[in-house]
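Hello support,

Our group uses your service weekly, and this is the first time we've seen a run hang past the timeout. The protein is DUF3696 domain-containing protein. I'm not sure whether the cause is the sequence or the server load. Input pasted verbatim:
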Amino acid sequence: MFTRLRLVNFKAWSDTDDICLRPLTMLLGTNSSGKSSLIQSLLLLKQTARSPDRTVHLNLGGDEINDLFNFGDFDDVLNQEADAPRLFSIAFDFDNHATSRIAKGGFECSYGQTSSGSVVVQTVTLKAEGRQFRATRREKGAFSILVDDEQLPRAKGRGYAPERTIAFSAEAIAALDKDGQLVEDLSLAIRRELERIIYLGPLRRKPERDYPWNKTKPGDVGSDGRGAVDALLASALLRGDEQNYVVNGVSRWLSKMGVADKLEVRQQGRSNRYELIVHRDGVACNLRDVGIGISQVLPVLVVSYFAPRGSTIILEEPEIHLHPLAQSALANLFVDVSRERGIQFLVETHSEHLFRRMQTLIAKQDASSTDSAMYFVRRKGKSAELCTLEIDDFGRVKNWPSGFFGDALGETREQARLMFERQKASTQ
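Update from on-call engineer: The timeout came from a worker crash unrelated to the input. Re-ran successfully.
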């Protein structure tokens, strides 16, 4: 689980300061305010960590098949404040003692640009067990390897450049001698934490009338939810202890949202094609013939049960095309699944209904400030600004930002004023 994030001079952010990340973290705010940049920073590191080229310092994307995002070039990532230095940095802490020898650790890296325009690591710092290890760029592409508070480098030269941002080179590991194993373990723990990220974007595929199945379990659902149906087919058709686990979880939440009673996988004759059947009020319909909201929320429900335990699921606008009651139920989904499966949810949303239900869950003590964090992002000049929403034990927000979900109270006052004016006019 990621526990802290900080961005400096990254896209819309001049400096986020330390952002506390909880098992459920919600990001709210206006369009183009900078919410997506927070999410994209972790996805940028994820696609760098899995790059086939180990010598790459930062993979800004461009491969439509393998990359999550195309970030453009250095200037597209760099914050455009006039007095900002031509460096940006990403830092995070993590805590996942259940699945790694390194229980807790930290990562921080600053990036610059070479004369040829390439993005290059300036300084990368890995932290764990009270220790820290740095690789700092010197002239002509050489790097110095420093440990803790030592003033003199353990090694320096061109062979000590970091790999895929998060790992020290084999030469650097060897130069660190007894500390080399700790650095190797730490790099592996950071890589695994990034690999555990699962991202589902706001644009998801429309349903088909039927689907083929290759009798295998997909690796992931994809950023557009393309693998969600394959995950459902595998859940229903592959024998084992977890057969129908995903299907049953999805059915349960479709029912709680009030959009369906259950979901069924049905084979078409003796062919290798299958259809998804939605049951509601005694009527069975093909997924293609029901409202678009069900097909759009389906990947959200699937990934919640298909993702390996301990994963971090990043969601953009999970509420899209859902009616208000179903949007509200998403809050219950995130709280329950996070607690049940050890899943971390980072959610970008515009849904007032989802947020209001979170307030209610906090008031009912079904969620707490130790399990959840909510932030409002707004624009301040060319840069973004983050407001931590202070919510008391009764779910009340102590520091409502201006323009938060519009002005509902003002609208009510205006409606009342107009009503009284018309009543007064009708009696004269």
